[in-house]
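Dear Dr. H.,

I hope your travels went smoothly. While you were away I took the liberty of generating a structure for the chain from your last submission, since the lab meeting agenda had it listed for discussion. I wanted you to have the full record in hand beforehand rather than looking at slides cold. The sequence, exactly as received, is reproduced here:
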Amino acid sequence: DSHNDRGRNFCLKEAVELVRNWIGDEVELLVNNNPEAVIKGKMIDIDFEYEPRKQSNFFSRIIDRIDLT
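The corresponding predicted structure, in token form, is as follows:
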């Protein structure tokens, strides 16, 4: 909620400590540095691997069956 941030830190503090125990001090990037950079219009670095899933539809199933790939 952007209207009032007084109670948010209290709720977030417990979660930040839990995540800090899991990933260490990198939590600061996730909850402080990266959001601040985004607000300022700066680029952020992320370490994320993504493999898109193949979408299955009628035509893709036909192609898979007759092995046209």
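Two observations you may find useful: The two ends are 48 Å apart (CA to CA). Helices lie at 8-23, 27-39, 58-66.

With kind regards,
E. W.
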